[in-house]
């Protein structure tokens, strides 16, 4: 999605110049890419896997005249498992080049790639190096909602009804959760677009294009949409599932209040997570409580829908299990401790009237397991 976005912007920038650009990504007809590369072009934009494929297998893809290599979102490229591909690409490219590396975080893996790609002593440029407050723009309104485990779904439904004529992004922690909630909300009258990492490239590209072109729309997504992507006119970001860390919080809320426009960010919390608000304040992020005058009584209706539909129930169980797995892996246990939440009540927020069979690890104490 980021490659497509950069390609579209680049195409506009070079429209009146004697330059050519092509894109190489999975999900696009490789023969068309082969032909474009054989003809020659000034700018090649691509993802690591497909670019490596062309470097190895596409004849007449000439790279001897390469002048500039740009690595964008380098930390994310490494996070999603492209370290080996990136190292191999660097070995194949001419050493006599300028290299620009962009990254939101500084990691040990990033340092390794830096040593490989930046041959001379690199010039390091830091933007807002230490102050989180500088990373949140003044025109972003930050809110939190405290909702009990069983009422989360009803609260989300009520908020989306309120913002039905706006452009909204809703973040979930897992792909299964995006699948279930998008299917459910589409069934009960919303028009939901979904985007997550397990979708094939064609579906992901279609979701990206459809959400971008709509003036009013709702996108259910994982953190695959949290960084780099620039959707226009997003009025509200809802974090239905908590972010893994403060940096991810910043990336998520950064999808709104862009280009000088106002935006809203709403963080869902359950009562046991309330202390997280104070933690965010220590990072110079001040959240106000978001008030809903009337919560729609939708929970019982959803319980019946899921119970009476095999397809929904199957996906609800998958979503619930993957949510628990994701939640139990969160590092900030002081605020997000899976042993403290009422998991049986949490089932209802997935449309499940009873607890599904789950294999619990040693993380669960005896009291918690007995209650379950």
What does it look like?
The protein is of the alpha/beta class. Helix content is 40%, strand content 13%. The strands form 3 sheets. Strands 7-8-6-9-10-5-11 form a 7-stranded parallel sheet, with helices on both faces. Strands 1-2 form a two-stranded parallel ribbon. β7 (192-195), α9 (201-213) and β8 form a beta-alpha-beta unit. α3 (48-57) runs parallel beside α5 (83-92) and α8 packs antiparallel against α13 (310-328). It is globular and about 65 Å long.
Give the structure's gist in a few sentences.
With 372 residues, the chain is of the alpha/beta class. It is 40% helix and 13% strand. The protein has 15 helices and eleven strands.
Main features:
15 helices; 2 domains; disordered C terminus; two-stranded parallel ribbon; Rossmann fold; 40% helix; single chain; alpha/beta; 372 residues; seven-stranded parallel β-sheet; globular
């Amino acid at each position: 999605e980021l490659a497509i976005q950069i390609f579209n912007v680049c195409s506009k920038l070079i429209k009146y110049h004697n330059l050519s650009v092509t894109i190489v990504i999975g999900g696009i007809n490789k023969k068309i890419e082969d032909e474009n590369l054989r003809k020659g072009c000034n700018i090649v934009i691509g993802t690591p896997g497909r670019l490596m494929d062309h470097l190895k297998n596409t004849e007449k893809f000439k790279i001897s005249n390469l002048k500039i290599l740009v690595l964008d979102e380098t930390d994310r490229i490494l996070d999603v498992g492209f370290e080996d591909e990136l190292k191999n690409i660097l070995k194949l490219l001419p050493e006599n080049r300028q290299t620009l590396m962009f990254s939101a975080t500084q990691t040990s893996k990033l340092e390794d790639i830096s040593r490989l790609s930046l041959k001379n002593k690199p010039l390091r440029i830091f933007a807002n190096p230490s102050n989180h407050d500088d990373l949140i723009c003044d025109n972003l309104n930050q809110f939190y909602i405290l909702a009990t485990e069983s009422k989360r779904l009803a609260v989300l439904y009520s908020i989306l009804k309120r913002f039905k004529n706006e452009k909204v992004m809703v973040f979930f922690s897992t792909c299964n959760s995006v699948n279930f909630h998008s299917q459910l909300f589409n069934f009960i009258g919303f028009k939901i677009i979904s985007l997550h990492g397990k979708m094939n490239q064609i579906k992901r590209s279609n979701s990206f294009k459809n959400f971008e072109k709509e003036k009013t729309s709702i996108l259910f997504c994982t953190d695959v949409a949290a960084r780099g992507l620039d959707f226009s006119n997003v009025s509200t970001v809802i974090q239905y599932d908590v972010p893994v860390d403060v940096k991810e919080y910043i990336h998520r809320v950064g999808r709104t209040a862009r280009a000088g426009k106002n935006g809203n960010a709403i963080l869902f919390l359950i009562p046991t997570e309330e202390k997280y608000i104070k933690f965010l304040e220590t990072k110079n992020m001040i959240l106000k409580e978001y008030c809903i005058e009337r919560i729609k009584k939708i929970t019982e209706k959803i319980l019946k829908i899921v119970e009476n539909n095999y397809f929904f129930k199957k996906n609800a169980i998958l979503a619930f299990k993957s949510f628990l797995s994701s939640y139990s892996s969160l590092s900030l246990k002081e605020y997000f401790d899976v042993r403290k939440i009422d998991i049986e009540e949490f089932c209802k927020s997935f449309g499940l009237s009873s607890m599904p069979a789950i294999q619990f690890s040693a993380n669960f104490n005896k009291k918690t397991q007995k209650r379950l």
